[in-house]
Structure formats: structure tokens, C-alpha cells
Amino acid sequence: MAGMAEIHHPLFRSIKRGLAHRCPNCGKGEIYGRYLKVRPTCKACGHDLARYPADDGPAYLTILLIGHLIVGPALFFPVVWETPPQISLPIILGVLTVVTLLALPRVKGGWIGLMYALQVNDRDHRLHTADASD
Ligand SMILES: [Zn+2]
Fold first, then answer.
1. Ligand 1 center from residue 121 Cα (angstroms)
2. How far is the C-alpha of 27 from the C-alpha of 103, rounded, in Å?
3. Domain coordinates of the chain in residue numbers?
4. What is the distance between the alpha carbons of residues 110 and 23, in angstroms, rounded to a whole number?
């Protein structure tokens, strides 16, 4: 079964593994040593996990997703408007903080899966920076 669909790093499988905090290469090893701290290599297959640029992208993406999926829809509920801000604001910010902290490792894992699927690594990252003069 070596058809055209049989690519080396399947995109959705790689992202799905990352979302589950798993190594995109084998789907077995944990990618995090602790919260958001990516292991240098996968414990199960030895895949180099440190090579994927995952600094600003995942955080930006998480904020974007939460802004669209939670903040936007929340504004359609009148209770958000009718509650005095000194009560609603701490609750909203608290919920957003918790949701963000829960979402961030998954988004970052999915991001690493995406980098894996696209075979992007640190070397490309340097190539794509704006400063091309050196
Ligand atoms: Zn692995």
C-alpha cells in the first residue's frame, strides 16, 4: 500500500498526536517533561523534539483561538453585559486564564506535530527571519 496518500509525515496524524501530548513520530512518548517544557528527545523512539521552533507561534495561536471561540461568543450572552464589571471581570479573567493554561500545552503539541509534518526545524526558522543580511 504505497500509494500517493502514503506520505512520510501524515499531517493530521502528526497534529493529533501532538494535541494528545504525544511524540509526532511514534505517538507513544510524552513530548513534555513538565508543563510546556518539551523533552529534548522522545523517550520511546529517540526522535529529536528540540529541533522544532515552538516559541511564539503556539502562544499566539492559543490567544487567537480563545479570542474567537470563547471571548467572541461570550459577548452574545446578556448576562456578560448585565453583571457589574467588578463581579464579572475577575470571573471572566479567571476562566480565561484557566482555559488558556489548559489549552496551551495542547496547542503547542499540535504545533510541534504540524512542524513535524511540514518538516520544519530550527535551521528553517533562522532562514525565515527578516534579517537576511548576515
Ligand atoms: Zn517518539
1. 16
2. 19
3. 11-123
4. 10
pLDDT at 2: 44
Distance 91 CA to ligand 1 centre (A): 39
- The tally of CA atoms less than 13 A away on the side-chain side of residue 109 is 25
Q: How far is the CA of 60 from the centre of ligand 1 (A)?
A: 26
From first to last of the 134 residues of the chain, give the pLDDT tens digit: 444 444 578 999 999 999 999 999 999 999 999 888 999 999 999 999 988 887 788 988 898 988 898 888 888 999 888 999 999 889 989 999 999 999 999 999 999 999 999 988 766 655 555 544 44
- How remote is the CA of residue 42 from the centroid of ligand 1, in Å? 5
33: three-class secondary structure by DSSP: strand
CB neighbourhood size of 123 (10 A)? 10
Predicted TM-score (pTM) of the model is: 0.77
Ligand 1 centroid from CA 14, angstroms: 11
> How many angstroms does the Cα of residue 116 sit away from the middle of ligand 1?
11
The rounded Å distance from CA 39 to ligand 1 centre is 11
